[in-house]
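Exercise 7.
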Amino acid sequence: MKRKIFIFALWLALSSSLLLPLDAPKFPFRLEVATEQANIREKPDIGSVIIRQVPRGTILESTKKIGEWYLVRLKAEEDQLLLGYVHESLVLRIESEAEEPELIEEEKIVAEEKLEEEEKPEAEKKIPEEKGEEPKKEKIQIAPPPTVTPMVLEPSEKRFMLSILGGGNYISGGDLNEGAEGFGEFYQDELQIEGGESKPLHLAYIFGAELSFPLTSRIFLGIGADYFRGRKESSVEQSEITPGNSFTTRPEIQALPLRAFFSYYPVSFLFLKGGVEYYFAKISYYYRFQEGEYWKEWEGNADSRGIGIMGALGMEWNLASRISFFAEATGRYAKINGFEGDDTSRDTEGLIYTEAGTLYSFQVTGTSQKVYPQLFIRDRKPAEARVSDAREAEVDFSGIALRLGFRIKF
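Solution. The predicted structure, written as tokens, is:
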């Protein structure tokens, strides 16, 4: 008889276990999203596809942990379940449902009896019998400490970013523009040419590249370089009153600024940037005047180096998981002097003269007693007749650039 009972109990246990779904997942612990948002990825890899983004405070159920990644499930549309992976630094592990303190039925009865006993008057309270019977011990339920969500910085989803950009640049010019305008005004008065003027150089094209490394999910450290170049030619000729009289000016500017900067993303599509730049700068000028059959021209080239600062505001739009398009407005401040180079002059008679030295800015008094700014390379500080206020020229690279580009994320 005992053997039959044992066989029946064994059969009953096996039958009940077979009735349980074998593929029913168990979730031994829960996770709470501790950052502004967490990315749920298809695979436990930082480069894997993002299948869902969940906000701070979302409770996720996890089945297991693989390295630094938790396998979690979440509801999709039409009550479907999605399985994915979340990085451990984005969530905080909290007590599981199995660990939640829950009063069993016996403890609930004891607690209710204790409450009723405390509410009775002293005379009606039960007194333990003298037979040595001890009062039933009550289990004290201790509430778990409140969960504290720590400040957790989400790891960056990009190891680094490469940006390729191009656009237009507006520059001030400084003494380079003042010299070109002054030369035109001087010979306009000397040759009695009416109308027209020497126009300043302001616009240049710009190309560049940047490489950025993440410090946090919002702050990047970057290095970069730009190349910009521009020139402006002006020619004025008077053919009615003084036939053949004319003048030409052509200022030109080139620069290669190398920079180190920080960029900050207050939101995912907006960024701010600031940093310092080291300039490899070059300028050139071309002046020419003609009076009747006689003409003379000057051509100078000089270079220098200097430091400036920059700042930018931009917006970014994702085109794919690893490619984005961005547009930014960049402001620069850089005034550079100490240009060294050479000047070559030629005239109708075939005379060629080359002079090496420093780029100077000075004032020249014309026949009408007006004062005109001039810019030339000289081997010594100008001090001849009708010349005043001579000093080393300062070229102003300050300005604003509007740039568009693509950003590749690795």
